[in-house]
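Sorry to interrupt, but I need a hand with the structure work. Can you supply me with one protein entry, sequence and fold together? No commentary is needed, just the two lines. Leave the record below and I will have a look.
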Amino acid sequence: MKKWLYKSLVVSVALLTFGMITPKHEIWTTLEYGVEPNRTHESSGNDLSAAFQLDTILLEDSREEASIDTILSAAKQQSYIKFGSRIGPVIENEFETNIFPKMEEAIEITLARLGNDAIQSLTITEKPSGAYSEKIFHIIDNATAQDVIRFHVRTENRPFDGFYYNFHYHTMEDSYVTHYNLGEIYWSKNTPPKWLS
């Protein structure tokens, strides 16, 4: 199997499942070499190290081929990781229709200002903050080690009205001072669960 097709297939599975389900590596061996996996094989520590090595190779390849589409896919993935299993299903529809299109637009406009050469050196932070912290993800320029754009969600308690999630972003152009509003999603009058829960 062609190497680019193999890598594309592995990356697609990882993105489509938001990294929650990792492909069994014996499947990829069968696809690539046509070798039937040994069913009696017992797991060893080497299997785990091979998995990490494969993930490292795929990450390096995806960084080399960074594009707006891969950045947008990673942005959506990090958002759902932040929401967790308790908040995500409740706000998913509104996030998909009202918030994420504006998030995509903000990313595309910012990356267009940077140019194609700068896109190659961008990465997205992989650890959204938990509890009631705001950080969803930041897009970082590896060449300068500086955040290009920061996406946050703030939980607001409005008396007599309830709790809202305020989605916004900050850019390096104004030293991250201005809140650029992406929109709000109403939770309820009850206190929302913590992020990542």
Summary: DSSP finds five helices and five strands in the chain. Residues 37-65 have pLDDT under 50 and may be disordered. Residues 43 and 180 are 49 Å apart (CA to CA). The chain has two domains: 3-64, 68-186.
